[in-house]
Each structure stands twice: as structure tokens, then as C-alpha cells.
Amino acid sequence: MSDQPSRKKVWRYAGAGGFLVLALVGGGLVARSAAEREQATIAAENAVTNVSVIQPKPAEAGQVVLPGTLEAWNRAEINARVSGYVSAWRADIGDTVRAGQTLAVLEAPELDQQLAQARADYQTAVADRELAQISAQRWESLLAKDAVSRQERDEKHGQFASIDARARAAQANVGRLSAMRGFTQLKAPFNGVVTNRSAQLGALVNAGSAGGEPLFTIADVRRLRLYVRVPQTLAHSLAEGVRAQFSLPEQPGQQIDAVLVRTAEAVERRSGTMLVEFLVDNRDRQLRPGAYVDVRIPVSGAAGTFQLPASTLILGSDGARVAVIDRNGRVSMRPVTVGRDQGTTIEILSGVSAQDRIVLTPPDSLVQGDQVRVVRANTPKASNAKS
Q1: What is the model's pTM?
Q2: d(C-alpha 131, C-alpha 108), whole Å
Q3: Is the distance from CB of 243 to CB of 257 less than 8 angstroms?
């Protein structure tokens, strides 16, 4: 009888031990499964890229710095109209001259002889014309008396007309050579400054020689033209009357005013730029034509344009793009049109709106359709800095 209770106890203890083993094994499996699920969740969360976003701001007025060239208001190269020898020059480089002032005198003995011959030919033609006129008048009187035929009278009138034409031609030739004789004195066409002189005493000057250096160069420097080529994206914001400032490389701190007076109204296809002209007052003659300057042109922000930090731009073979985040955290690579580069910021002409969320400093691995997590940026948003 004593063996039965002992056997029951053994089975009871064995059942309890088995249950304990099953509980331990089941708990381990449950804990392992929970750990695996947690690791999977962490791995999935780590696979999502954290990004910071920024919204576009309306473009603000700023300025653009472009190279320009100063040119004289008027500039003329004085060449010889007749061949001869330089007998005198009366102006040198840097001299201020007036309109009509003699710059140099040429000796042209061959021209003088041609003029003398032309005058003699003209006198001969005048004498022949007078004789032909008298003959025509006499034959007209004889025709009234029926002493000559009408045919003979008409021939005399024809001779007079022919000789009169030759006399007029001789007179025109005298006028032409007299005008050429006046070209032996080289004169300034307008008030200005002599910027170049190649005339030398006794030098032979050949009129009409191709590629020859001009004897004088005159420039009107009281006013200067400032030529600047502006990009096509800025052409719409420039109009007559816009004021700009420029500085010389040797005087970077001195700003000089200029006023826009005209534009080319056409974009050059090769460079994608438009030529504009500014007027510069130079009555003190401190500026020199031909100088290169840095021009600062104010530019107003056009409607519908925005500014973004330069770090948002993605440049590739497909052009400029930005990464836009939608409501579901998906990435959309959107092409944009870039305007002014202001260093820290870039002007965007099209492709974004004020409500878009743009990825700030997108990683290289970011592609279309990626799932991302938006986090707060560690650095403050870039402001719309003016260049």
C-alpha cells in the first residue's frame, strides 16, 4: 500500500517538471520571436534615410556682378584721302583738339599738277563753248534769211551742246581736284582727345592702302559708353534708366555711377547673352576708354521665382533638379530652371512652388521614389543672401 502513494508522487513531480520544461522552452521561443521582430523593426527603421527639408522663399531684389568694357562716346580713325608726304603734324597723343582743327599737313605735288592741268582744260573748254555758241546764234540768223538749211542750223546747235557738256565736265574735274587738294590738311572731325598718332615728318602716305595704320585716332571722352553682356535670364529685368555701379580693378573701393541708355533687344545665340549699353559721365577725364570694369547691376525678383540654398541643387546629366518630399514621405526628383547664382543661394525660375518641401543637402544615394524620414535640421535655414 505504501508503494502506491510514492508512485503517485513520482508521477506528480515528473508532470510538474515536464510542464516547467515546456514553459521554459515556450518562453524562450516567444522571447526569441519578439527579439527577431524588434530587430526587423529596427532594421527597417534604419533603412529609411533621414533628411532635412526647406521650403522655397520668394526671390528678393539683389544685384549681379558682370564684366564690362568702357568705350569712347565717339571715336574716329583719321586716314589720308590723298597720297603725299607729311610736311607737318600739329597734334600729339593726349592733346585736346577742337572740331576742324588741323592735325597734319601733306605735300602732294602730283595732285597740284593735276589741278593745274584740269584748270587749263576747263579754260580751253570755256573758249570752245563761247565760239560754238556764237556760231549757233549766227546760223540761227542765217536760217531766218533762208541762207542756210535747217539741217545745218541743227548741226551747229548740236556742236554747241556737245562742247558745253565737255566744259561742264572740265569744270567738275576742277572741283573734284580742288576738293582733293583740301584733303592735304587732316582735320579733327569733332572735339576730343588724340589717342594715337603715327604721322611722321617726311613719311610717304599712300591713300587707300589696305590695312594701313591711321595717321591719327580721335576719341570723345567727355562721355563714355559702358558695354555689358548680361545673361538671358536677366534680360527681362533691365530697362532704360536702370542705374548701375562699376569699379576699376586698380580701384576696387571706388564705385562710379552709370545709367542704362539702350539694349540690343536680341540674345546672341552663341553666348546666350544680350548686349546692353550704359552712359558714363567723364567730364573730369578720370576714366579711360578701353578699360575693363566690374559692373554691379541691380536685379529685381521676378514674380513666380524663388530662392533656395545652393546645397539643395542636384546637378547631373539630366540637368538641374531638386528632391521634393510628398505627404507620404516619398522622394520626387523634379527638374528646375536655374536663374542667378548668388553664392549661398540659387534663384529658381521654374519647377517649384512655395508649398514644396525640398531636401536640404540630399545624399548621393537618394533616388526617385525613395522613402525618407523628415527630421529637423541641425543648422539654421539659409537666408536669402544678396550677392
Answers
A1: 0.61
A2: 35
A3: yes
